[in-house]
Amino acid sequence: MNNKTRRIPFPIALSTAIAIATLAGTLTAANQGVSREASAARSTAPEPEPMTEAAVTQAIEEYVRARYAGDVETATSRLHENIARRMVADNYWGQPSKEWVRPFTRDLIAFYADPESAQRLDNPSEGRCDIEVFDIEQQTASARVIMEDAVDYLHMIHLNGRWVIGDSAVILLKESGAKPPALSDRHAQKIEQVSRDYCVGFYEIDGDKVQSTCHPSLSKRSVEQARLSDGTEFEHLSGITWEEINILGETFNTQWGFDADDRCEIEIYEIRGNIAAVKMTGTVWFDYFHMMKVNGEWSIVNIMYESLDRSRWVDV
Predict the structure, then answer these.
(1) Residue 182 φ then ψ, to 5°
(2) Secondary structure class of 178 (helix, strand, coil)
């Protein structure tokens, strides 16, 4: 790292620096999604779930078992209302097509969890539910679950006291109980390079480089705190779009002055089929990635991020 003067934003919270760099209004409590979350926060809530691997695992299992039981209400309660749930598809209206990232809304879980669904089991506790929690950082976790009908890579968020699924990258299996795609590290080098280009692009103040690593359907979000005029505090998901990631890449490091060789640690948790679960740790923040291989190219589709605790910052 060069010995040059750093211009650290004030206040020094990363979320503030990002708020400066993104379009005005993305963190306001006036939008419809935030208002709904604020209303939920005002209602009487049970004791907050702990920030532990066991609690994350329990939340995922509750979701899976509810699907098997045909319990739509419980299953959907473990999904954020604006969940970014995606898969790579190569068939459109029954016809072969180029590969593309297909979104699934939260409402579609009602179809999979419906009592008449083919995935419903007479004994929900016997259904396949192979959970691995890769990592927990503060209010965010990266995990994977293998179900009877799908492999689901999850970004869990601790929102208003509960662990819920914020992002999901899905591999649908050809039939219930089918063997999932095998783990592979064949594309690890490419995945690491894309992840590193994303990080270094911020340091180089190169918005095009950052944006080139991300799919146009990018969802990049973080749990933020907000306060209403009546003093009510609540948490909500703040988002950055594919268009905004270019703007952020052009502006973020003007507030910090990081060098291209500053911290950029990449950890690949799993590569399976056309999906990879990855973590990137930068100087003052971290990102959990869901990456997808679409038409032969790996790109970042889902991101959940947080600023690191001040004690863990480096190169500042």
Answers:
(1) -75, 155
(2) coil
